[in-house]
Amino acid sequence: MNEIKAKLAHLKKIKDRDRLTRLTGQTELASSQTLWISIAIVSLPFLLLLTVEIAARCLGPARASLSLPWRVYDAPYAPLSEFRWTGDLTRLAPLPIFNVPVEKGPYPLRYSHRITDEWGFPNRPANHPPQPIDREHEIILTGTSYMAEGSTVDKTFASQLSRFLETPVYNASWPSGTPTRAAIKVLTDASFCKGNQKLVILGIVQRYLYDWAFNEVFDDLADDGSVLKIPSENLPSPTIQDYIDWRVQVEKYLMATSVIREWAVKAARPLPPVVFQLGNDTPVRLSWLKTPDNAPMLFYSGDIVSTYLDYNCESRNGPRIADAIERIHKRCQTIGTKFLVIIVPDKYEIYRNHVTPRQFPQRYPEPKEQIAHPSQRAPEVLVEELNARGIDALDLYEPLYHAQLANEFQELLYWVNDTHWSDKGIEIAAEYVSRYIKEKYSN
Amino acid sequence: MVFSSYIFLFVFLPVTLLVYYAIPFRYRALWLTVSSYVFYGWHRPEYCLLMASATMLNFYCGKAMMRSSSDRLRKFWLIVAVAGSLGLLGFYKYAGMFSHWADTIAQLFITPENGTNIIPILDIVLPIGISFFTFQAISYPIDLYRGDAEEASDLIAFASYIAMFPQLIAGPIVRYQWIAEELKERTHTPAKFALGLRFFSLGLAKKVLLADLFALGVPAAFGSHQPSFESAWIGILSYSLQIYFDFSAYSDMAVGLGLLMGFTFPQNFNSPYKSASITEFWRRWHISLSTWLRDYLYIPLGGNRKGEIRTYVNLTLVMLLGGLWHGASIVFILWGLWHGLLLASERALGERHPLHWLPRPLAVVCTHFLVLLGWVLFRAENFPMVGRVLKGMFLSFPSFTINTHLVSAWYVWTIPIGICVCLFMKNTWEMNARQTIPLAVRDGLVFLLSLIVILASTSTPFLYFQF
């Protein structure tokens, strides 16, 4: 019985596979020479590209460094490193129009050059073993990439604020982290900062004004500002999330530093634009209007959605955000440091006319309350709430929006190909904040 | 890891192939296992344990089964293996859905406090390809029990069979009996390598040049709150072409990669849009799944041996479970039910069924239309979306204008071209496989073009990864 079954199975196997066997049989009809030449023809371009790529990586000039596999230091970047790159949204929307070298591009493309100090923060390196930062800087700036980056080290918000205030500002911004991650490090890690500063600034981007972005504050600080979680002196244990972050970083790094990718981008320019056209579910939107350089602006879909759909502070759970910020404020009071919150508007808020509701009428209906209550923007409501709690807070919407209206296309306040603010936007904001600081904390 | 990604094409594949051909045959199964676990674990390393568990469970249950003296004991080990594998699948894929349903039902009777859930909803990240490797693993103890397969003697070879990266995450579902011999001994010839390169390069081109192209039109229907007649049709036709080329691409690439390492996988995709009936469609679409469901579910349920009514019930039930296999969502279940009912109706009406007496070209169009309706359920995330798209397709009036914010005007012309490709062109398996230099040049150019597009743009993952 078993023999019969085995035979049946064998026949079935042959039946299922006979077509592939037929195909390989047909392939074998060709001469051995033809087969080898065919293999060479198909694989040669690939092997050439691979060889060039390997050679460029091994022999070419050093490119950006890749941080270690695990989060071995509690810092945003590898210490004493150097990074350069162009706008991040073009990775999501590789439109041919943006595929130009930054120095040749007719558009103001985002270009970022960053060096890190011995702590891994974007400051000029001190080239000495890590020591607490207190003595050199009276002001510490914390926040995410908006606070961290500029086209050069001298164009960051910290540098420009430092210029206007004529006092050093330490850039403790933490790109890719939560808005409060850097502030918590500054205020809790005595090996990094002993808390003897005069002022700690927390810069929050509008898109992070959601309660989930502030959860870690409740884990690390009590409601009276005392520290709940003492940073461990030992290296943190790697987690799965660390691995995933690293994997994403490796994939981005490989693409960003690929020589053959640069070639491919050039070679792909003549291809039909539909290959690169954005679908409606990509995370990036193209603007309706174009700049005088005929370049469309890129926006995060998420910014548009959050600005439209979560226009009011309630839907973002504003009171919980205020509670989190209040804990940081109390922590500052405990250690005798002043505390200032600044809220940076999203690019979409400033260049709203570039993506009109008319463009996406079905997906993003214009909320009625937005028209009826223009003063009820989430950042404004939050600033009012914070001020009521005795916390100094500034919304940068007004100075940036007015600057945009007065000077719409002369010098863009946000990059065309990215959602970060440009050097000009940073400058306007830094001047506005410096005036506030001078007036408020004149002593 | 996605086949059409830089890391796969320029790091993983060259290293894997180089080492594979550099080491003696007896170590190749081990290398294949290691590289396949790296391939799988690259996404979420912790899920390698899941795959290893499924491997060990089925391997050792198979061993115990073959050493059992009584049929009762053999059955016991079979049940342990199948229940264990299905348990893993059930927990990781369906626990979230069932806990959500249970909470929804509980909230009908109890008002939750502070908007919390009454029954905690499990939020489990779906291990990619779990449905594929679980079904593949299950087939082994069943075949052993039935006497359709020989016992696997080598754990490493068995592990390489379960984890084999070319077909690990989107099929074909390869049964152990089909490749047991090749796991022990297989040939590596220039003919196989050349054919493998052809399958791989054509598959890659289908993915990056066609599937990703048609993906652009899909949001016209499914990303809109109120799709117009034109948007709905452009969207659903685009999706039907996207999923066709996407799955066809992956199947070709899997077969090609298998050939590069000496394995001959079964055909999984055979121009399904050329079908003149739903029965024929399922003989051409995801062949390894439909035959798996037939052999391990439909026939054990009684197949067509227990009367007409039972046959229809079995057909519908099998397809419903097939729908559930694709995803833990009510819309997938309904998609399976839709196909089950269509199959049952074809079976019930026999020659009287319209698709049987219509001229073949018309039957092909009608079949495609029925499949298209099924794709609405398959692609939609929820019922309201199904309703919106169907409303746009059937209850709206054409305005003969295209919303150019959603798709460019000339994109629309790619849709009929894509349909013609599906209907009239030979598929990879039907082409003459005899290798010639001009054909090699064609394959090389297509491969190069695909690489350029991959490097110069972002690509969406294969749709079948999510199942």
Which segments of chain A are poorly predicted (pLDDT under 50) over 5 or more consecutive residues?
273-281, 358-373
Biggest sheet features of chain B: none
Distance between the termini of chain B: 15 Å
Oligomer: heterodimer
Structural class category of chain B: mainly alpha
| Rg calculated over all Cα atoms of chain A | 27 Å
- Overall shape of chain B: it is globular
The average pLDDT of chain B is 87
Give the overall shape of chain A: globular
Poorly predicted spans of chain B? 459-467
Distance between the termini of chain A: 98 Å
Kindly estimate the percentage of residues of chain B that lie in beta strands according to DSSP.
under 5%
Query: With helices defined by DSSP (H or I, 4 residues minimum), what is the helix count of chain A?
Result: 16
Mean pLDDT of chain A: 77
Order of helix and strand elements from N to C terminus of chain A: HHEHEEHHEHEHHHEEHHEHHHEHH
Summing up helix and strand content along with how strands pair, one would put the structural category of chain A as alpha/beta
Beta content of chain A comes to: 5-15%
Rg of chain B, Å, rounded: 23 Å
Write out the strand line-up for the largest beta sheet of chain A, numbering strands in chain order: 4-3-5-8-9
| Topology pattern of chain B, helix = H, strand = E | HHHHHHHHHHHHHHHHHHH
